[in-house]
Design a protein that fits this description.
Glutathione S-transferase Yfyf (Class Pi), Chain A, domain 2; globular; mainly alpha; EEF1E1; 54% helix
Length: 165
């Protein structure tokens, strides 16, 4: 089974109050994702799109990465590989592209939402950089239209492994 990016794109379009052009949407799941994503950020009031040629290339690269690898996170083995890789990438970054929130971050956020929700507390400790990034994004009002927040606190560890003085 593969995560359906089209569902995520529709949710993002709804958040951004942009209607995806149905004529441009291919009915094959997860095809034409790059075109759909750039359609979302082509609105004049969108601040989520790339600002220069380098950012365009980076956003395209992230879209392809999401479409090829991240959509398979429903498999535990694939999830571990992808989460570990993203955790390493985000060790020195706040956002995927440059120093600001872009559509690449939002698409990855929605694609990972289900797997991040399912992580145990101990699993979250293994992916601290990814969890920091995800937690940062989930508190952005643009991204989180409802009040659902995934808990990333580590208070549970104190109960499992009490400190010794």
């Amino acid at each position: 089974m593969v995560v359906n990016i089209q569902k995520n794109l529709n949710q993002i379009a709804s958040l951004l109050k942009i209607k995806l052009d149905d004529a441009k949407i291919n009915k094959i799941p997860n095809s034409g994702v790059t075109n759909k994503v750039f359609q979302l950020v082509s609105a004049p009031n969108s601040s989520l799109g790339p600002k220069n040629q380098m950012e365009i290339l980076e956003v395209q690269q992230w879209i392809e990465y999401i479409n090829v690898y991240v959509v398979h996170v429903d498999s535990p083995q694939n999830a571990r590989i992808v989460l570990k890789e993203l955790n390493e990438i985000l060790a020195e970054k706040t956002y995927l592209v440059g120093f600001r929130l872009t559509i690449a971050d939002i698409l990855l956020f929605y694609t990972l939402k289900k797997v991040m929700r399912s992580l145990s507390g101990l699993d979250k400790e293994n992916y601290l950089n990814l969890c920091r990034w995800f937690d940062n994004l989930q508190h952005d009002a643009l991204i989180r239209p409802n009040n659902e927040v995934i808990d990333f606190s580590s208070n549970y560890l104190a109960a499992l492994v009490p400190a010794r003085h």
